[in-house]
Each structure stands twice: as structure tokens, then as C-alpha cells.
Amino acid sequence: MSNIVSGQDLxxxxxxxxxWFAPALEAANEVLxxxxxxxxxxxxALTHQPAPTVPLRGEGDIGIYSNILxxxxxxxxxxxxxxxxMRAVVRTPVVRAAAIMPDACPAGPIGTIPVGGVVASEAIxxxxxxxxxxCSMAISVFPxxxxxxxxxxxxxxxxxGPGGRAAGQQLTPSExxxxxxxxxxxxxxxxxxxxxxxxxxxxxxxxFAFVGTMKSTGETALVxxxxxxxxxxxxxxxxxxxxxxxxxxLSPETYPENAWIPADTExxxxxxxxxxxxxxxxxxxxxxxxxxxxxxxxAKVSDRFWNEHNFVFRKSDGLFYHGKGATPAFNGWAEDxxxxxxxxxxxxxxxxxxxxxxxxxxxxFAPHGAGRNMSRTAHMRGLAEEYGxxxxxxxxxxxxxxxxxxxxxLDVRFYSGHADVxxxxxxxxxxxxxxxxxxxxxxxxxxDEVLPFGSIMAGDxxxxxxxxxxxx
Length: 472
What we know:
Blueprint: H1 7-12, H2 21-33, H3 38-46, E1 64-66, H4 73-89, E2 95-105, E3 115-121, E4 135-142, H5 147-157, H6 175-183, H7 190-197, E5 208-214, E6 220-226, H8 229-250, H9 266-297, E7 303-314, E8 320-324, E9 326-328, E10 341-343, E11 351-356, E12 365-367, H10 376-386, H11 396-407, E13 411-414, H12 431-440, E14 444-457, H13 466-471
Parallel strand pairs: 1-2, 13-14
Antiparallel strand pairs: 2-3, 3-8, 4-6, 4-7, 5-6, 5-14, 7-8, 9-12, 10-11, 11-14
């Protein structure tokens, strides 16, 4: 009998050669070295053999609920791209169902879940919540406070743009949240550091602080929109690495964007726990800003609630529902859920307060906003052509004209001091159309509105960046 197990022995035993042979041989020879039989050694080697790979689902195996209408040829092109990408997404072996919301738009190459997409799966897909984990909405109602006073107060206490608050001005999340970061391998280290540095900040892009009045009562309200910033981005990066390791073993044909972490693994349990910690950080982040504004005004908050619209939810059926830019509209979507959710449109339109309808054809979700029909770059190119700008882009006079036209007397502010016209109303789909489709498909009921007074966004913070000044 041989005193050592070789690679040829494994092949002769019917095993398929691969990278796994190295640990398999080590395990087999350890058994032999301890006096075990060749049969026992080969059995030990087999424990290292990877499971058979799972093929992609066939085209059309999983149906897609479509809750979107195109009102013109341009929108039709957008809808076709959304459907094409979702058809590729649902070929992922663990996906069980999918739906498209009225505000859907492409978010990457074919096979990437679109914004306004909902996917139910047996596993967790980090790529289906992307780096802006728990992008969400929060509202606080301030009785007896004027909208301008509230907008001024928020402007003085919030923080938009890259990075975090300056040293000496930083706030900290709750002790429970800090402890949860420290105890989770996905969140300890760099994620914890930025979790402190960026607490009580709002980022850039389409995130905002919106002040308006409740249509039902006339009371002033603050609505904020942002995600988990760098802490969430760090979790996403780590999650994607783990998911892709599983993908390489389980389903190499699956698009990397749709790689998954199996729910019944230690990695899956830990990642699910990390998502809940990021959710708690984000919720605290919203209301820290609201509370600072209240303190600034010595005002009381009479009501508040919040909801995420870019997250992973687990229902009683055991599946994970990935809402990529989709508002939960089913009962009990979270322990702290109320029966109300917030759906913003654009800075010039009311924010909708809705009650979900748990529609089967929406997988229990509603839109998260108005969505885009084109990228920021394409929108800016169109504005440049419309306003006759030269190759250097829009002039200050062009921007002033666009602002006056699109904000229509609202108190619209940009934290950086430079307007970002790619976030103005014309960049988004028709609010009236999206609202109409919410009703047409029965995805949610509008029960109140926050009428716009003004808002704050990061603005074009890159305009004054040192590297741009040097280049000019």
C-alpha cells in the first residue's frame, strides 16, 4: 500500500483535478500519517471537492412583473433597456421573482439590476443594493416653525460633500451602534473609523434636505434623503469580495454584479447582521441632523418616521427582497416600520406620503421617486445644446437662467456654493407620470404631501476643487 496519496491517486478515484487538490492531498496524507487506511484518506480528500456548479436559469424561466409605462419614444428606449437588463438578472440561479417599478432606469451594463428594480432571492446579493446601502428618507414635523427658519437652521448644522465633519466638530453614533461595528468583521476597522468621521453628514449626488409644509395641516416639515455613505460603501466592497468567491465556486456563469452570499453560511449570517447595523447607523444619521436643527431653533418635533428605499428585506417566506431604489409597501417591512413611507419626486414637486398596498405584482414595493431617463452626463450635454453653450460647458449666466426657470421661486441652495444643474427637475422623469402610474398599478395610496418651500443639496463641489483650478 502506498505511504503517500498522490494527485494521480485522486484522479484514479474519479476526482476532477483542480486547485482544490492541494488541500485535499494534505488532508488525505494527514490521515495516512496517522495510520488511517487509503479508503479513509480518499474520503478525507473528497471533503475538499467543490460542489457542482449551478447553471444559469433559462431565458424566460422567471417571469418579471412590469409596472412601468413609456409615454414617448425616448422613454420607450429606457424601458427596453430596463427590461433587457432585468431579463439577464433573473437568470441568476437563486433568483425567484422580480418586478420593475414606474421610475425604473438602467444602472449599469446588461445584467445589472436597474434602479427601480425588485428581486426576490434565496440569497443576499451585495451588487443588488450597491454601495449606497440603505439610501433612505426621514421626516420630522416642526409645529409653529416657519419654513425659512427651519431651512436656515438645517443649513447651519448639516454637512454635504465628500469626507466628514472636521476634527472637533464630529458627532458619534450610539454606543450600541459603535459596539455592533466593532463586533462584526465586515464593519470593524476602516468602516468603523469613517462611521464616526461621517456621522451626521449627507454626502452628495441626489441627496438633499427638503423643507416644506404638510398639505393636510400646514405644519412645517423637514425631509432628508441620504444613505450610509462611506461605512456602507466599505461593507459593500467587502461583501462583493466574499460573494464573488462563492460565485467562482458555485456559479461561474453568473454575472459578477449578481454574485451572492448563501444565507445558510456563517458569511451570510454575518453579512445580514452587518446590513442591520448599517441600517441603524443611517437612521441615527438622519435624526441626528433633524435633532440639531430642532436644538438650533429650540423647537419641538411632533412627529417623525423614516423608510429606506435601497436595501434588502427578508419576508416570512424566507426570501431576501432586494429593493434597488424601491420603497417597501408591505406590512411589517421592519420592526420600526410605520404604515407610512416617503416618496420624493424632485425639488420642485411635493414629496408624497404614502401607505403601501402590498401588491403582488410589485412584490410588495412601490417606486422610490421620479427616476431618470438618462445619465447625468447625457442630461448636461442636452442642456448645453439647448442653451447654446460652447465646448467648455454651461456658463454662469446659463446656469442662473436654468435655475430661475426650473426652481420657480423656491429657496434652493447648494452647500458647495455651486449649483448642480444635473439635479434640477428636468433631469428626472415627469413627477405627474410616476404618480399616475403608482395609482394605475395600485402600488401605494397617497395619503398626504409635503409641499416644497426650499431645499439644500451638495451642489457641484468639484467646481472649486484645487485640481480643477490648477488645470484651468
